[in-house]
Structure formats: C-alpha cells, structure tokens
C-alpha cells in the first residue's frame, strides 16, 4: 500500500515483530495453559508431575507456570 501511495498514515506490523512474538510465547502461554488445563480437567495441578517437551519460549513459560502452581516439571 505504501508503494502504491494508498497508505495515508504510517503503519507498523506489530503481529510479526520479534518483541511481540517473544512476549506472547513466553508470557502469554503462562496464563492460557493453566487456565485451559483447569477448565478442561477440573483437577488441582499441585503435586502432579508434568512433562514439558521442548524448551523454547513456549516451553519455558509453560514449565514456569506449572511449577508456580506446584507441579513437578520434567
């Protein structure tokens, strides 16, 4: 649109930014993972053993969230 002179104001593609992706992957999954597990299973996470396969940003956030709720994370 910019090259065609149809873009009348500056625009930034936030969705594809590295900062947004890192933030969403690391912190966003912390909230949604625990919420999803609790809603789907209606069980307490504390004292359970959880396996996190992969340790990228999503895995790190997931492992930390599970640990914070008392799970033993492998």
Automatic annotation (TrEMBL):
Q: List the InterPro entries.
A: Adenosylhomocyst_ase-like_sf (IPR042172), Adenosylhomocysteinase-like (IPR000043), Ado_hCys_hydrolase_NAD-bd (IPR015878), NAD(P)-bd_dom_sf (IPR036291), S-Ado-L-homoCys_hydrolase_CS (IPR020082)
The organism's taxonomic lineage, starting at the top: Eukaryota, Metazoa, Spiralia, Gnathifera, Rotifera
Residues annotated as domain S-adenosyl-L-homocysteine hydrolase NAD binding: 25-74
Name of this chain's protein: S-adenosyl-L-homocysteine hydrolase NAD binding domain-containing protein
Has keyword Cytoplasm?
Answer: no
Q: In which family does this protein belong, per the annotation? A: Belongs to the adenosylhomocysteinase family.
Read off the SUPFAM superfamilies from this record. Answer: Formate/glycerate dehydrogenase catalytic domain-like, NAD(P)-binding Rossmann-fold domains
Top-rank lineage group of the source organism: Eukaryota
Q: Which PANTHER family match?
A: ADENOSYLHOMOCYSTEINASE (PTHR23420)
Mind naming one GO cellular-component term on file for this protein? cytosol
Q: Recite the UniProt keywords alphabetically.
A: NAD, One-carbon metabolism
Gene Ontology process terms (BP): one-carbon metabolic process; S-adenosylmethionine cycle
Q: Provide a Gene Ontology MF annotation, just one.
A: adenosylhomocysteinase activity
Classification via SMART domains = AdoHcyase_NAD
The keyword Electron transport is annotated on this UniProt entry: no
| PROSITE patterns referenced in this protein's UniProt entry, alphabetically | ADOHCYASE_2
Which cofactors go with this protein?
A: NAD(+)
> What Gene3D superfamilies does the record point to?
Adenosylhomocysteinase-like (3.40.50.1480), NAD(P)-binding Rossmann-like Domain (3.40.50.720)
